[in-house]
Specification:
It is a single chain. By secondary structure, the chain is an alpha+beta fold. It is 48% helix and 14% strand. The chain starts with a strand and ends in a 10-residue tail after the last helix.
């Protein structure tokens, strides 16, 4: 049984990019495990660590050496290896030379296909310590680092200058040079609390030693939860609740090694500024966590996370309060200045802002969206005039100082400024909702005008960008068209808007100048959106065969598509589903191979066999019940009724020869199957479930 030891790898560097730290940690661990697997070194488990100045992997129970291997190399057949006199041929001699032995040292391998010359070679396993440096170097070279840097006089490159490398295998150092740095067993603690080296006796001592003596929480996930807990507790002491944005929490986690939450405050007069602007200022610029009351209203407090335990925390608090005041003062100034002119007065200036060179300015886009928005609003029984007004104002807040400083507030500030100007509440709300959903899983617009504007704006972008030949390719999607398409289908389905996507695309294309030829790409955009719909359902865990069964019918209304999906999902759970899906596939194959034209109607007088008579009777009894259900979009009810056809369908295929020699009988039976297939196709192509 092979021996095992623990392995610790740590790369100590200058502060790593905070937004990339988690990705670097995971990629480094993956690179190490991939290298160990490739080297056929077994291990029990791995634990990855990351802090601002370090990446580390602890490999538990790593084999000290590879297993010894025996390789059997097969050469030419014995019949080709020796001539009639038993002398080795050139084939035998060449094989022996390639193995570094004589022909006499080769053995004969007997198989069921004959005898072959062979050479059995014993290869001892290499020590893990000899393989580890290359594994580490390879893992580091494959880290997702867009731009590497050099330091000092060497040629080594990494995301930041490297200061130390730990490579400890059991209680022994693996001697090597990694990124121009000799390996050792000394790590370093917090830059200020413990800048001196820390001696590591063994890998298992790494995390507890750093925490107890080095003032470093090396476990990124544990550090994240510690920060969350401290921030929540600090906000409670202020009689409030902390707003903890996950992305901000990740970034703060990557910025500190020894987190200490400290609360602070600001002048309550700043609360006259929209809360979103104050929150953006605190979160994006200062990395503070805002505090709200039980009703969600912003309080004049924040929580920051320091990277050390200060002897004078009040001094740290005062410093943070001093830093945030100019930021909030700027936000208050922008709020005051922007309201001095109506939002609508900025509309003409949109003519100087290019949306896309070939597609015109933001004013051109606003006018196209206004036209399309009226159509959509009318279709969903909303006010077309309000939809048009919202579209014409939609991009005006891009010209305000507040949105220039805080781009993430586009739409949000439009709502505030529109209300200040006396615009209707519906128009103001739509200005905010036009960007919803802003990201995966985000909430959707709730107002009808907001829904119309959100759909129209995205459709205009999709059709326009496709028309100028800049559809997404591979991972490149500079106009976020995939997100736009997914946003549209989510709104149509989840807000239950029964709109025809083909018609909307055609309507959108009609708003572009003739030279753009937007009408030529609507079919391509439709297929692109169906692909996004496929991704939408894949994320819910839907069996992809169900999606393909519905897509085969190409419903053009996403809400109708969704209802069919739900119906087929329910049908697939029925005990009759598998048999009927197989029957539909068989019917499709038979009809495709039919050489004659299949009649539209079944001649009851030509039904000779009891099984075909029974199937025809069952179909005719169900048809008047099922067809109205399909027409009314009640697909689940219709398919459940059709499940009753399982027995007569099975009996038909067991007892009836469809391709009879008599052409009249054959065509009549094909007509029966064609009618049966047409019933099921009212919802989906169930043969795709096979």
């Amino acid at each position: 049984m092979s021996q095992t030891r623990d392995l610790l790898i740590e790369i100590g560097s200058e502060e790593l990019p905070p937004k990339a730290l988690r990705r670097l940690r995971d990629a480094f661990e993956q690179g190490i495990t991939t290298g160990l697997d490739k080297a056929e070194l077994q291990y029990a488990a791995t634990v990855a660590y990351a802090a601002p100045r370090r990446l580390a992997v602890w490999v538990k129970g790593l084999q000290t050496a590879q297993q010894d291997r025996e390789q059997l190399k097969r050469g030419p057949a014995v019949t080709a290896a020796f001539d009639d006199e038993g002398c080795p041929t050139k084939a035998a001699e060449g094989f022996a030379r390639s193995c570094g032995v004589t022909v006499e040292q080769l053995e004969t391998l007997e198989t069921d296909k004959g005898a072959w010359l062979a050479y059995r070679q014993f290869e001892p396993g290499r020590p893990a310590a000899d393989l580890i440096p290359d594994i580490v170097a390879q893992a580091l070279s494959q880290l997702p680092i867009p731009k590497r840097m050099r330091w000092g006089g060497g040629d080594d490159e990494f995301v930041r200058p490297v200061h130390w490398v730990v490579l400890l295998f059991g209680d022994e150092v693996v001697d090597a040079t990694i990124l121009g740095t000799p390996t050792g067993r000394e790590t370093y603690g917090h830059r200020f609390h413990h800048p001196e080296p820390l001696y590591l006796a063994e890998p298992a001592a790494y995390m507890p030693l750093l925490e107890t003596e080095g003032h470093v929480l090396a476990d990124m996930d544990a550090r994240r939860e510690a920060i969350r807990g401290q921030v929540i507790e600090a906000a409670r002491r202020l009689q409030g609740e902390a707003l903890i944005d996950d992305e901000l929490l990740d970034e703060v986690t990557a910025l500190v090694e020894w987190p200490v939450a400290i609360s602070g405050g600001f002048d309550p007069e700043f609360l006259e500024v929209p809360a979103e602007a104050l929150i953006s200022s605190m979160q994006d610029h200062q990395k503070y966590f805002p505090v709200v009351d039980g009703n969600g209203s912003l309080l004049p407090h924040f929580v920051t996370v320091a990277n050390l335990e200060s002897r004078d925390p009040d001094q740290v608090r005062a410093g943070n309060e001093r830093v945030i005041r100019p930021r909030l003062t700027d936000a208050a100034f922008f709020w005051t200045q922007d309201r001095r002119q109506p939002l609508a007065s900025r509309q003409e200036r949109l003519a100087s802002m290019v949306f896309q060179n070939k597609l015109g300015t933001l004013l051109d886009k606003s006018q196209r969206v206004a036209r399309l928005g009226r159509t959509i609003a009318a279709a969903i029984e909303a006010d077309p005039d309000q939809a048009e007004r919202a579209a014409l104002l939609a991009k005006c807040d891009l010209l305000t100082q507040m949105v220039f400083e805080f781009p993430e507030l586009q739409g949000v500030m439009g709502r505030y400024y529109a209300l200040h100007d006396g615009e209707s509440a519906e128009v103001a709300q739509a200005l905010d909702e036009q960007y919803m959903p802003r990201f995966a899983g985000d909430r959707l617009p709730q107002s009808a005008i907001g829904q119309a504007l959100a759909i129209a704006d995205r459709l205009d972008t999709l059709v326009g960008i496709f028309a100028i030949g800049q559809a997404p390719t591979g991972d490149k999607d500079p106009f976020a068209l995939r997100r736009a398409a997914l946003g549209i289908v989510r709104i149509l389905i989840e807000c239950e808007l029964d709109l025809d996507l083909h018609s909307l695309l055609d309507e959108s294309a009609g708003g572009f100048a003739p030279e753009i030829k937007a009408g030529h790409v609507t079919a391509e955009v439709f297929e692109f959106m169906l692909d996004r719909l496929r991704a939408y359902y894949s994320e819910t865990g839907l069996d992809i065969h169900i999606f393909e069964a519905v897509r085969a019918q190409t419903p053009t209304r996403p809400l109708d598509f969704h209802r069919r999906i739900e119906a087929v999902r329910e049908f697939a759970r029925l005990p009759e589903a598998e048999s009927l899906a197989a029957a539909n596939k068989r019917i499709g194959n038979i009809l495709r191979k039919a050489e004659s034209t299949v009649p539209d109607q079944v001649d009851a007088g030509l039904l000779k066999e009891p099984a075909e008579q029974a199937l025809h009777s069952a179909v005719e009894q169900l048809r008047p019940k099922v067809e109205p259900l399909f027409e009314g979009g009640q697909y689940t009810e219709a398919l459940c009724l059709l499940a009753a056809l399982r027995e007569p369908v099975d009996s038909f295929f067991d007892q009836v020869m469809v391709m009879a020699e008599d052409p009249a009988l054959r065509d009549n039976r094909l007509a029966l199957l064609q009618g049966l297939q047409a019933l099921f196709l009212g919802a989906a192509d169930l043969s795709r479930l096979q």
